Amino acid sequence: MNSPILYWFRRDLRLSDLPGLCAAAAHGPVIPCYIHDTPDGDYASPGGASAWWLHHNLSALEAALEQQGSRLIIRSGPVRKILPALVEETGATAVHCSRSYDPGAAELEAQLHDTLAQLGVAFKRFPGSLLFEPEAVSTQAGTPFRVFTPFWRQCRQQWEPAQPLAAPAELPHPDAWPEGMPLDALQLLPTPVNWAQGWENLWQPGEAGAQKALDTFMHNALADYPEHRDIPGVDGTSRLSPHLHFGALSPRQLAHVVLQHSHLQPEQQASADKFLAELGWREFSHHLLFHFSGLPHESFNERFEGFPWQGSPAALKSWQQGQTGYPLVDAGMRELWHTGYMHNRVRMVVGSFLCKHLLLPWQAGQRWFWDTLVDADLANNACSWQWVAGCGADAAPYFRVFNPTLQGRKFDPEGDYIRRWVPELAALPSKHIHEPHAAPENVLAKASVKLGQNYPYPIVEHRAAREAALTAYQSLGSK
Question: Is 362 part of the annotated catalytic residue set?
């Protein structure tokens, strides 16, 4: 009973609803560890905003473990070397972890299994970050789903939501602790300029912060979710995506709370179903990435590999900086830069603008979002960008080109969202705030808007950009 088990935290940075941690605690001494591996390759390491979140989530996990009389052993380096070395150092008899579904994870886990088996140590993976294991959901032909609706329908038909597990009452500690490194040594926070200053007032990473955000959503936003989720000027979404990505909240915990709420308040069943479908899109994205590992790099629809993308660095920079001359697009890009987050409806608009107005490749948008989003998730990011570009699974049709001006008028009619993030336009009347370049000179002057000086003219004209996009898409033919 004195031989410890290593619990290897990955993207499950919590203590509750962790089958592997509960199993380890029932055995005896537990040594919790986190290994910061930064392998080469695109998207192998978190972007800047995600690294900020990871630091604070790890800090919260450290504090939670200390309250249990335990501690988090932090190491840095290749997992395939560090983990076996830590096993030999501690005399652990087993390693427990939550399963990962990202490309390369299965290969790493198989290698760890073989390496540890040679040491006489069991390597046990447990489910934890998805509602459904990818192998458990397939078409009648046994192939992966490529369309969301039938995928989610099958998920709901076989859904047997279990009660989430409580955190272990205690975590027995070993006779001796191995050495770890301080969290600050991982250098996850921005330096030398702290571009994330003030984010601690916007976000509370960690399990307690996730529960607080969940409670806020359930009490304030779920009832009106179907109507308010598309309105960026109100708090109508859950903002739980970063908590889910880093595992401070499990999807099973979230689904259980929403289902329980809908049973107690049947009149909110439609709202609950709509929100659960959004959770389903997360499952679908991970399902696709698991089965099609090239998603972050290659168009899911192969014929788009020949798409005539343009490569304008100036246009990309204008988009990144929120200086396109389209207020809703600019508001979204500035919200992203200042908060590490962007409203979902606006994400679709800015994504469509990049791909279909500027004819810039979706991979460029994916890279920018990877570095600037606190909820940057490889599966969600790749699938969403391919969807908006028209080349992904269940994609928006190529001829759907969002008009950012009309989108602004529809979903931000009074300009509340735009006024917040594009303050140079704040004094414009609602009638003109979505299209300042078309406003009369006296209206612009009264609002102190000087086009070409303190706010840009549109970098492309919508009608011409739409025609260019349709011509480019049609050039692919049906091959």
Answer: yes
